[in-house]
Every structure is written in C-alpha cells, then in structure tokens.
Write a structure and sequence with these properties.
heterodimer; A: 184 residues; five-stranded antiparallel beta sheet; 3 helices; 23% strand; B: 195 residues; mainly alpha; 2 strands
C-alpha cells in the first residue's frame, strides 16, 4: 500500500511538471500558429481574386465563405470546401463569381500520398498555380465532373475526384442558398 | 574520450536505423523527400536529447516498477513541444510530416535510449548518447529519402533534376522504402563484415 502511494506521487509530480511545461509552450506558440493559418488563408484569397480589395467573412447553412468586394460591390465568393481524400480530408478555398463560374481553387491542407495524390497541389517550376487546379478555372461549378471537365491525375483518381466532388457539391449548395436567400 | 565513444556509437556501430533497425515506421513513412527526412531527424534528435537529459536527471528518483509510464510522460512532453514549435515556425514542414511528428512518442528508438542508456548513466553521457543516436537517425533518413526522392520523384530538395526522366512511382510508395532500406542494410552489413 505504501509503495502504491509512492508510485502515485511520483507519477503525479512528473505529470504535473509536464502539464506546466506544455501549457507554457502552448501559450507562446498559439498566436504564431494562428497567425500562420490566417496568413495562408489571406494569401489564397488574394491569389484567387486579385481584383478584390476586401474580403468579408460570412457563414450560411454551415458553409463558411468570404464575400469578395471590389469598391463596395460584390464580385464573387470564396468558399471554404472540405473534401475527403485518400489519406484524410482536403481543405480548400474555391473562388466563384456570382454566376457560379470558378475563378480559382487553392488547397490549404491535404494529406494525400506524395508523388500521387499530393500532385493536386504541386506546382512545376515556373507555374503560378498547380496544373491540376488550373483546369477548374472558368468551368461551371455546378456541373463539374471528373474526366469530363477536369483530367484526373494518373494513379490518383480518388484524390482528384475528392477535390472535384467537394468543390461541386459545396458550391452548388452554397449557390442554392444564396439564390433562395435573395428572392425571399 | 568516453563521451566521443558514446557519440560515435550511435552514428555508425549502433546506428538506430541500419544496425538496430529501430524506428523503421517513421523512416518508411516520411522518407519521401529530403526536406521531410531532415525535419524528422531534427525533431527526433530534439526529443532524444530532451528526454535523455531529463530521464537521466530523475533516474534515481523513479521507482523501477513505474519507470515506463514516467519515461513515456517525459517523452510525450518533449514530442508535444517539438510538434507545437514546428507548427508555429515551420508550418509547411509540419504539414508534410503530418501525424509522424506526434508519433515520435511511440518511436521505440526514443524509449529504447531512455530504458537502455539514460536511466543508467549520468546526464552528460546521456546527452552524447542522444546526440549520436539522433545524428545516426538523421543521416540514415537523409540517405534513404535522397535515394527515394531522386528515383521516385525526379527531384532533389524539391528541385527538378532532368525534365526527360520519368520516375518509377513505386520508389515514392511504401515498397520503394522497404527496398531502399533493405538494400542499404545489406550494403552496410557487407561493409562491416569485410572489415
């Protein structure tokens, strides 16, 4: 019994020290981590819609989006899209204009296989955006279909389909919502 | 001299990857690009040094029967510190290593050093042991990932080598890692047995 208490005390002390150290580390790294994520999102937004001068973060029906404004007028929407890829989720931002034409897509976070699925977000030297994502530009977001509108990456059909389906489904849902909201 | 011995031991004679065959899971998973290899190696070295120092300092206070949970708490703490700092200062690298930074906790190389070395020896020797092991792990990772990145992706450190080279995909996938590690271990065994 005595021994048990001693074990408990030793473990508790070590855990207490560990918790203190971790709480401290968490506090000093947290602002930095959040700032990094924010910056990443900002860069993606201004890359998708360079003509917009401000972005308004909004949310409807569980979809987070940014309204892109150019001198006070809405010129399009940047929608946060999450797809289910091969190894985990793929977090993206999809930019569309008011008619639903895709202006650009940026991948923020993905865990696809390097050399295969990860190519959805790979740039060749000298390219401004990944070749796979470039295919989406100018297409109608509602009718997107893999192998018809966009070529899948060889050996990475699941990742390619995940991006296409997620962008189509979320933007369609979003566009429906916006439309009904306006007529009402 | 004794310190130098502890250091060199991990780099070559008891290299965790090639000689002890420890920590192979992260080695297989992250050695797809040299940057990943370096990142993983540095993170693991940090955890090794941190946990070795700490375990060595408190080694006389820890009752033998609860030593493993104590070691794991210490290791997990250092892994979380490494993970948080990588997320804050090298977000791209942290993202491409993904789950494998937190998984250093279960890397048997780290617990192995705590159990086999730092729980028996004073802090200074433990530091050299950890540095040697960490460096051994790092150079092994860099070598494996360099081979796989060149052959499997046609790049080195992300720079394209030759436009006309069509890389065989399997080198970047798990079979390529197993083949590379197997052949390298074979080569190193051959070299050491000839001496």
């Amino acid at each position: 019994m005595n021994q048990l208490i001693k074990f408990g005390i030793v473990l508790a002390l070590i855990c207490f020290a560990a918790t203190l150290v971790l709480a401290f580390t968490y506090e000093i790294t947290k602002p930095k981590i959040e700032k990094g994520l924010e910056q990443e999102e900002k860069n993606a937004l201004s890359e998708i819609m360079p003509e917009a001068d401000s972005f308004d973060a909004k949310s409807t029906d569980g979809i987070d989006y940014f309204e892109a404004l150019s001198s006070g007028k809405t010129i399009g929407y940047c929608i946060k899209v999450t797809g289910t890829g091969y190894n985990g989720y793929i977090r993206m931002i999809a930019g569309i204009d008011e008619k639903g034409t895709i202006k650009g897509i940026r991948v923020l976070e993905q865990y696809e296989t390097p050399g295969l699925g990860a190519r959805i977000n790979e740039k060749k030297p000298g390219e401004k955006e990944p070749a796979f994502l470039k295919q989406f530009n100018g297409k109608n977001a509602r009718a997107l279909e893999i192998k018809k509108d966009v070529d899948a990456i060889t050996g990475a059909t699941i990742s390619s389909k995940a991006v296409t389906d997620a962008v189509r489904d979320t933007t369609s849902q979003f566009l429906d919502k916006i439309k009904t909201g306006k007529t009402r | 001299m004794k310190m130098l011995g502890e250091f060199v031991k991990g780099v070559w004679r008891e290299n965790p990857t090639f000689r002890l065959a420890l920590g192979l899971c992260p080695t297989l998973a992250v050695s797809t690009s040299v940057i990943n290899g370096i990142g993983m190696g540095v993170a693991a070295t940090f955890v090794l040094v941190g946990s070795n120092i700490f375990v060595s300092i408190i080694r006389s206070k820890i009752p033998n029967k609860v030593r493993i949970p104590c070691f794991i708490v210490v290791i997990a703490t250092f892994v979380t510190i490494a993970d948080l700092f990588m997320k804050a200062y090298t977000p791209a690298l942290s993202r491409s290593l993904g789950m494998f930074v937190p998984l250093i906790v279960v890397n048997c190389m780290v617990l192995g050093r705590a159990e086999a070395f730092s729980s028996k020896y004073p802090p200074l020797r433990s530091i050299f042991d950890a540095l040697g092991m960490g460096l051994g792990f790092t150079w092994a990772l860099i070598l494996i990932s360099a081979i796989r990145e060149v052959l499997g992706n046609g790049t080195i450190m992300g720079v394209l080598i030759n436009k006309n080279f069509q890389p065989p995909l399997f080198m970047i996938l798990a079979p390529g890692a197993l083949l590379t590690i197997g052949l390298l271990i074979g080569l190193i065994n051959y070299i050491t047995s000839r001496r």
